[in-house]
Specification:
Blueprint (H helix, E strand, L loop, with lengths): L26 H9 L29 H5 L17 H6 L5 E2 L2 E2 L6 H20 L7 H27 L4 E2 L1 H14 L4 H13 L14 H5 L9 H7 L5 H4 L2 H8 L1 H21 L3 H24 L20 H6 L6 H6 L16 H12 L2 E2 L6 H11 L15 H6 L26 H22 L1
Antiparallel strand pairs: 1-2, 3-4
Length: 461
């Protein structure tokens, strides 16, 4: 979870990736198509190929020969991130940088290394030099409030609603969620949702954007400082994002992402303390654009790192995501991560029946009573019981003392695999981003079958 910048988006207005331009013989045919008012791209090297049908403005990228050619349809060039990169060339040149004798597994994104490092360094310097005598209680309360708004936008909006579709919301609530998400100052909703759906489908593999098997730092923030593994891009193209691009709220967010993020994350939170209770510009900026922003980012990142490495696994001992109460407090209920990775479509993101460490669920229940949110999904108690009895590590409250063993000691001896196991599928199957029956799973089977056929043929030869 969590993104800092828009570097992963393709912002060029040119519909062809550099180094993959169309050859001159097609210029005549391209001009003819444009003269007829048809904006379709022409497949390179196939002058007689039939024209492709027209597409809606925000349709998802085609999985056809154009994708492998690196050609980006002009109508979605500003909305689809890196989906049309020449993956073969990307993989061929994917060589880790070596810095001060340290060999990295991926090329570094130096602009992000510098930006993230300077942001945290500035926050630390201001923390140690902050004039405590001038600390204003109203500004402090305001910082916590804005941080809570940002956290709600990430947890209830980007995560539970748009990524997992764990409940339904009316246009008013969707707009509120979008604005709250803008306060968090992370990446576009499209990028956030795509990366998180890939994370769930291929958790702890090379296709996981923040694979925890590569260490705490990489899972926490290092993944934002490096180019994505080729498997992340390859699997990301197989994720169904049609529901995201079909949402007018998402389209508005995509179109005005930069001004929305700048205004709601930095300008408005800084201006209000100055004009409402006389805070100085410098201290308002430090509290909002440094302290609150950096804290919010790290709270979100902790779900990718700490909640995948430390804690109990009462629902599935075979996976790395864990129940971590500290992350739950910081991330407003997102730290019950072992449960979440088993039942990702539960709107509570936890089995908990109270709001003690799940503030997001409390607010969502309030919107549910207003009628703005409905179809709040959650598994039956019987399904949860069967799952934890079959795969759990014995630390669940219902299993304590059953076999006379200390649950903590049992959990400490459990072996956690480095493979992704199938999650309990959404019973409504509204989208198949995580179901084991998705098209990408079928592609996996086809690839494995192809490998087996090649081996059998080589043995026969």
């Amino acid at each position: 979870m969590g993104h800092l910048s828009t570097s992963e988006r393709v912002c060029s207005k040119t519909p062809v990736i550099p180094g993959d331009a169309s050859p001159p013989p097609l210029l005549a045919r391209r001009s003819k198509l444009q003269a007829n008012g048809d904006a379709q791209q022409v497949r390179r090297g196939e002058d007689s190929s039939p024209e492709l049908p027209p597409r809606p403005k925000f349709a998802p990228p085609r999985q056809d020969s154009q994708s492998s050619r690196g050609v980006i349809p002009k109508d979605i060039v500003d909305h689809v991130p890196k989906d049309k990169i020449n993956l073969q060339e990307y993989t061929r040149t994917f060589v880790g940088d070596r810095v001060f004798g340290i060999q990295f597994k991926a090329p570094l994104k130096w602009d992000k290394v510098i930006q993230i490092s300077l942001l945290h360094l500035a926050a630390l310097v201001c923390l140690f030099t902050y004039p405590l005598r001038e600390l204003n209680i109203y500004t402090t309360i305001w910082s916590f409030f804005v941080g809570g708004v940002a956290g709600f936008g990430v947890t209830a909006g980007a995560h539970r609603f748009w990524t997992h579709r764990s409940y339904k919301a009316n246009p008013v609530l969707r707009s509120i969620l979008m604005v709250c998400y803008c306060v968090a100052g992370q990446n576009t909703l499209y990028d956030w949702v795509r990366d998180h759906r890939v994370h769930h489908k291929y958790s702890e593999t090379d296709a996981d954007p923040h694979n925890a098997n590569r260490g705490f730092f990489f899972a926490h923030v290092g993944w934002l400082m490096m180019l994505k593994h080729p498997d992340v891009l390859r699997r990301g193209r197989q994720i169904d994002m049609t529901d995201i691009l079909a949402d007018p709220v998402i389209r508005f967010h995509q179109k005005y992402f930069i001004p929305l993020k700048t205004f709601f994350c930095f300008i408005l939170p800084t201006v209000i303390p100055v004009y409402c209770w006389g805070e100085t510009w410098a201290l308002a900026f430090i509290q909002q654009c440094l302290f609150r922003y950096v804290s919010s980012l790290n709270f979100t990142w902790s779900v990718n790192s700490a909640a995948h490495m430390w804690g109990s696994r009462p629902y599935d001992k075979r996976i790395m995501p864990s129940e971590n109460i500290y992350v739950s407090v910081l991330a407003m209920g997102e730290g019950w991560h072992n449960y979440h990775h088993v039942f990702p479509w539960d709107y509570k993101a936890a089995e908990l029946g109270n709001y003690t460490v799940n503030f997001t669920t409390m607010v969502l229940d309030a919107f549910h009573k207003l009628g703005w949110a409905w179809n709040m999904k959650q598994p039956s108690k019987e399904l949860v019981r069967r799952t934890l009895e079959k795969y759990g590590d014995g630390t669940h409250a219902s299993q304590e003392g059953k076999d006379g063993k200390d649950p903590a000691q049992v959990a400490a001896t459990q072996m956690v695999g480095h493979f992704h196991y199938a999650e309990v599928p959404d019973p409504e199957l509204e989208y198949d981003a995580e179901s084991s029956s998705t098209e990408s799973a079928k592609l996996d089977e086809n690839e494995n079958e192809g490998e087996r056929m090649k081996k059998s043929k080589s043995k026969c030869a």
